[in-house]
Amino acid sequence: MVGEGMTEAVRTSSGKARGGNGARANGAGKATAARGLRVERVWTTEGVHPYDEVTWERRDVVMTNWRDGSINFEQRGVEFPTFWSVNAANIVTTKYFRGAVGTAAREWSLKQLIDRVVKTYRAAGEEHGYFASREDANVFELELTWMLLHQVFSFNSPVWFNVGTASPQQVSACFILSVDDSMDSILDWYKEEGLIFKGGSGSGVNLSRIRSSKELLSSGGTASGPVSFMRGADASAGTIKSGGATRRAAKMVILDVDHPDIQEFVQTKAREEDKIRALRDAGFDMDLGGHDIVSVQYQNANNSVRVSDDFMRAVENGDGFDLRGRLDGEVIETVDAKELFRAIGKAAWECADPGLQYDDTINDWHTCPETGRITASNPCSEYLHLDNSSCNLASLNLMKFLRSDGSFEVEKFVKSVEFVITAMDISICFADFPTEKIGETTRAYRQLGIGYANLGALLMASGLAYDSDAGRSLAAAITSLMNGTAYRRSAEMAGVVGAYDGFARNAKPHARVMRKHAAANDAIRALGTVDATILEESTKQWQECLAVGEKNGWRNSQASVLAPTGTIGLMMDCDTTGVEPDLALVKYKKLVGGGSMQIVNQTVPRALRNLGYQEEQVEAIVEYISEHGHVVDAPGLRPEHYSVFDCAMGERAIAPMGHVRMMAAIQPFISGAISKTVNMPESATVEEVEKIYFEGWKLGLKALAIYRDNCKVGQPLSNAKPAKKEEPAAVAVVTPEPQKVIEYRPVRKRLPKKRPSETVSFSVGGAEGYLTASSYPDDGLGEVFLKMSKQGSTLAGVMDAFSVAISIGLQYGVPLETYVSKFTNMRFEPAGMTDDPDIRMASSVVDYVFRRLALDFLPFDKRAELGILTAAERTAQLREENGEAPVDLTEMASSAPVEKPAAAAPVKEEPPAPTAAVAPAKAAHSSTELLELVQGMAADAPLCFTCGTKMRRAGSCYVCEGCGSTSGCS
């Protein structure tokens, strides 16, 4: 696709004239003096429609409720290409098909979805003068169709939600707002944020203009400070989030490091995490989505501190740092920079917040400083630009450009970037926006966010370690080529339909940033033939970008970001999202007709072949990985190749600095920033967190966040209330009856030869077992046998010995409630979801066993004291708290046969968000859960609010592999 006719387009004088669908004439109007873009075929064949090149099939998409098995979505006979995975088809059907299910208006084919979007883009491109002829527009339409059909790229979710429908044509996923030091502005913030959340998108805001709690109001009183106003915004986000929008609300709150309230801001979420732990230990339901979690504040936002170079140098030198008033800039307090930095690191260590944003680096790469500084970001931190603006995203699937011989399709990649960036710019012509201020800024500055997914898979398939110089060199070259091509195409479009409205006042700084990108490209050192070829082309693209841009200017003030690519990554059947490495070497693949199978990622055998292994060796290594989940000691695999298969989690997890170094390698070639969280092990120290944050500044990152495993509260909790608030239910005081007090000379009371017993089968985190409990004739528990299946002789032997020890203790008079109080909440693998309706989650097999025994053999008052209730009892208790007629729980317990767990009806509870390994009963339903089952690793992630499947990290957000829901941008 090439640009011709680089003369300045004729534009209207005002940017406020509306088109029929929210379009603006200025900058996007029909070009009367330009000849438009000539479009060449890349992927398609003349005379053959892309739909006719593939084989189509009909499928049934049926989504069941994870809690009770009921059907919560069903659409039969949907049409997809045979090569689309079941997971990708399910996500597109449930999330992107428009129209009421069961009506004629409902979309049922991928053809309808693609046509709805692509034809809208083509029509807008023709209307606003982008194409030289109708034939060019036709080729553009067919090429986009082919690329979307074959999963070469995808637009962000709002495009699929809205474009071509009767809804407002919102195409942006990322928004930045602004707040001034006035109540009108603060209330406008609440309203604008709510409108954005309602549409399923996220926003970010910097609160540093609001005066601190240490400054005075004009009336003479003391100001509330920004932290107090965060409470109201947090409550609003929590309310809208639970209202059933397309996606959960996502938000970012930022405060400058020199704000007088910075110390309070840093501690907000850490203090609330302490509150969560205290309330949890007191017996309250503090799960994510739990009944009592709403009492905790600041949980609906990511928090970040904007640090300056002056502050970081003060930290480095051990100097003091001034906190300044918002009204007059006067110094209010001088703090020790190292102590403040330590507080930031400690809070992040405790609860993962706050992250850091490096202000001077961000604004040094800002193309429009004459318009205003960059003060904030979107929730995932990849979009950084002007206040009251938005960015629409699209991501390329890098694996589609990797040839079988390991080389990279450079020419097709360049052409694909041209197609995608052109389409993204066209979308601004017809797009609608949640507020007029955002619409005006976006149409005037035309911020775009092209990016990619599958980088981790590409590196592994190429036989390169993620944390290696060669891996970083290839990643940098690809990213530079993408950004250089995008800006070169932007300069060509400026010659056809005009530069962005704000370009004239920002021409010099914009050109300066382009030269910075080009200089960074020149600094890349190729370490292989593949990256050398890519680097040669990227150098050419940057040279053309500077030459054409000097003549025409640029159409877009921003071109690229690296987003999490959560839902759209699954839509494109990507193994890895955004800039992330592979999560694990094994994954689950859903099958047509239901069910799933465990497979080794297909990038593994491809990598082995590129490394020179023979087919027999590849088969043996893949079989070993399938069984063990890692490559250590795999037969025939050379130790020097282990690092190629390092993943985000597992036996050989990539070190935190490996993630930071990869971000540093590609940051100079991204207009915005990178959505990525640096995962750290639970054993990481506060000093290590500080080092990561400090090195991020040194290496030139724009934003950085960390997450330490298990730093958040998320284990399953009981809804039972403690008898007294000062006595936590989890540490219940046991007052055994006199006859059951352990005597100095205990007498063993053996069970008769023939005794009543019952067996309960169970599953905890996918591990199946059988619990047999035998009673004395007077109904007292006297014997326990615990058998675990498919777990190996060691665990089975340990469980046998444990059962004998417990049984002897019971026969010697140890009260059951003593065992229950000691062994419940014990935490180890396997752990997670169970198939017991009364005990939905267990932190270990031992935790489950003693909760089950308590429900079967202890009276209600003892169980309530221990915080162990049946599902029916919890339901009754919740109804009473909600104002319904009280129920006598003691009478309910006595009237129900407690020894039969099936007697308790299952209750639909809000899904918890455990920090430990979570897997559905008897089988994993996602790659994250499979990883935990195979490797015994705990992953800190919430359960999906939509379908209950455990989510996994995608950049700074989470994505559900089951239904495609995300907690941020995609």
UniProtKB/TrEMBL annotation:
Belongs to the ribonucleoside diphosphate reductase class-2 family. Its cofactor is adenosylcob(III)alamin. SUPFAM superfamilies: PFL-like glycyl radical enzymes (SSF51998). Residues 1-30, 892-914 are annotated as: Disordered. The keyword Transport does not apply. GO terms for molecular function: cobalamin binding; cobalt ion binding; nucleotide binding; ribonucleoside-diphosphate reductase activity, thioredoxin disulfide as acceptor. The gene is nrdA. This is Vitamin B12-dependent ribonucleotide reductase. It catalyses: a 2'-deoxyribonucleoside 5'-diphosphate + [thioredoxin]-disulfide + H2O = a ribonucleoside 5'-diphosphate + [thioredoxin]-dithiol. NCBIfam families: NrdJ_Z, PRK06556.1. Its EC number is 1.17.4.1. GO terms for biological process: DNA biosynthetic process. Residues 172-707 form the Ribonucleotide reductase large subunit C-terminal domain. Gene3D superfamilies: 3.20.70.20. Residues 61-151 form the Ribonucleotide reductase class II vitamin B12-dependent N-terminal domain. Pfam families: Ribonuc_red_2_N (PF08471), Ribonuc_red_lgC (PF02867), TSCPD (PF12637). It comes from the Bacteria. The keyword Oxidoreductase applies.
